TrEMBL record:
Annotated binding of NAD(+), by residue: 30, 35, 86, 121, 158, 270, 334
Source organism, top-level taxon: Bacteria
Broad EC category: oxidoreductase
Species, as recorded: Pseudobacteriovorax antillogorgiicola
Domain UDP-glucose/GDP-mannose dehydrogenase C-terminal stretches: 320-424
Lineage, opening ranks: Bacteria, Pseudomonadati, Bdellovibrionota, Oligoflexia, Oligoflexales
Similarity comment: family membership: Belongs to the UDP-glucose/GDP-mannose dehydrogenase family.
Involved pathway(s): Nucleotide-sugar biosynthesis; UDP-alpha-D-glucuronate biosynthesis; UDP-alpha-D-glucuronate from UDP-alpha-D-glucose: step 1/1
Listed InterPro entries: 6-PGluconate_DH-like_C_sf, NAD(P)-bd_dom_sf, UDP-Glc/GDP-Man, UDP-Glc/GDP-Man_DH_C, UDP-Glc/GDP-Man_DH_C_sf, UDP-Glc/GDP-Man_DH_dimer, UDP-Glc/GDP-Man_DH_N, UDPglc_DH_bac
Residues binding substrate: 155-158, 211, 256-260, 264, 327
One GO MF term attached to the UniProt entry: UDP-glucose 6-dehydrogenase activity
Protein name: UDP-glucose 6-dehydrogenase
Active site per UniProt: 267 (nucleophile)
Amino acid sequence: MRVVMVGTGYVGLVSGTCLSEVGHNVACVDLNEEKIKLLKDGTSPIYEPGLENLIRRNMEHDRLTFTTRISEVLGNADVAFIAVGTPEGEDGSADVRYVEAVAESIGKLVERNLMVVVKSTVPVGTCDLVEETIQKQLAQRQSNVKVTVASNPEFLKEGDAIGDFMKPDRIIVGLNDPEGQAVFRDLYGPFVLDDQGKLLFMDRRSSELTKYGANSMLATRISFMNELSLLCERLGADIDKVRQGIGTDPRIGKKFLYAGPGYGGSCFPKDVAALLKTGEKNAVELEVLNAVTRANVAQKNRAADKIIAHFKDLNGKRIAVWGLAFKPGTDDVREAPAKTIIQKLLDQGAYVVAHDPQGQGNFAREFGDHERLVYADSSYEALRGADAMVLVTEWSEYRRPNWDKAADMMAGKVVFDLRNQYQSQELHDRGYHYECMGRPDSK
Ligand code: NAD
C-alpha cells in the first residue's frame, strides 16, 4: 500500500519505518526541516534501539522516503496517518491544533479516495473534528473524493518501540463504517500473522477512549504502588516482596508494579490530565484519576526530599545524578522525574553533575543552563568528588556499578537508589549510606 505518515516523532517515525519494513511504500512528512535533512541522510533524529538500521535498510529498498511537503506525496497515497504531537494545553486538555492543521492540508490537497488514520492520542470526538475539517475543504473545492477517517491509537513503548510495533499485543482500529476494515487488514495483516484476532475493530469514540483508558490504568498502578512503598517504609515492610506477592496473581499481572520516583514521559502525565479534562467537560468526576496525579506529583517531590532530609543542608554539596531520560532506552526527557529532582536540589544550593547515556542533549536543551548544573562524559566521571549519587533512571549500564571504584571517586559514600536496583547489604558492607524506595533501609 502507499502510505503517507505525517509527523516523524517517536510514533510517526517508528510506525512509518515498520510499515515500510513489511513492504508498504511509506513517505514520511514532517515540518521540521532539520529532522527531514537528518533522515534523508539515513540518520535517526531520535534514539530508539534498532531504528536507524531499519530506516537505512528500507531507504535502500526505496520503500521509505522523507519530505517536508505533504503536497509532494499525498497524491498517490491510499492511506494517510496523522501522527503529530498533541501536547498538554494550558488547561490540561490535549491540544489538537497540529492534528487539525494536518486535516486541513489533507482536505485541501487530496485528489483520490483516501483513508485518513488518526494515530496521535486525541480526545474523544477528535476524529469527528478531523472528518468535518476535511469535508469542509472538499465542499469548498466541490470535490467528490471519498475520505474515510479512522482512529488507530498507538501503544508502542519508547525503548522497545520496534518490537512493540512489529509484534503488537493488539491493534485498535476505530471506524464508524465497517467498510473500511479491509484497508486495515491489508495494512496490518503482516503484523498479526500469528493471530488475526489481534486486530480489534470498534467505533471511533471507543477507540479514542481506549488509549486514554490504557495509559490512565498504567499510571494508576504506578501511583498505587508508590503509595504502598511509602507505607512499607513506615511499617518496615519490603515493597519488592509485596510486589512479587501481588503480581503473581494472574488477575493483576507483574508489569507496572515497580516503586520509583514517579511516572513521567511524554504520555502518562499529559494523557491523565487530558482524561481528567474530558471528565470535567462531561460532568464526570474522575476521582481515582485525580488522586493518581496528586500521588505522582507527591512522589517526585518525595524522591528529592529524601536527599534533602539526609543532608539537611545541601548548600555546596555535590550530587551526581545517574539518568535523565524518563526511562531507559530512550533520549526522551519530557516530564522526566529527573527534572523535578534536579530542580529541587539546585533550589537547595547543591551542585549537580548529571549523566545519561542518551538523554543529556535533550535534557540540557529543555532544562536550560544553570551555573550549578554540569554534565559528565561517563557515569563514573559524574561521581568524581560527589557527596552522593542518585540513581534516577535504571539504564542497564548503571545496574552493576563497581562500588569500590565509586567509593574511590566520591567524596561521600551516599547512594539514593530511586529504582530499587541495588542490594543494601552490598553497599553497607562497603560503608555506604544507602536509601531506596519502600524497602528496608529506606527512609
Ligand atoms: P513528537 O513530538 O516526538 O513528534 C511529533 C512530530 O510531528 C514532530 O516531529 C513535529 O515536527 C511534527 N509535526 C507537527 N505538526 C506537523 C505538521 N502539520 N505536519 C508535519 N509534521 C508535523 O510526538 P510523539 O511522541 O511521536 O507523539 C505523537 C502522538 O502519538 C502524540 O499524540 C502522543 O501522545 C502519541 N503517542 C506517543 C507515544 C510515545 O511513546 N511517544 C506513544 C503512543 C502515542
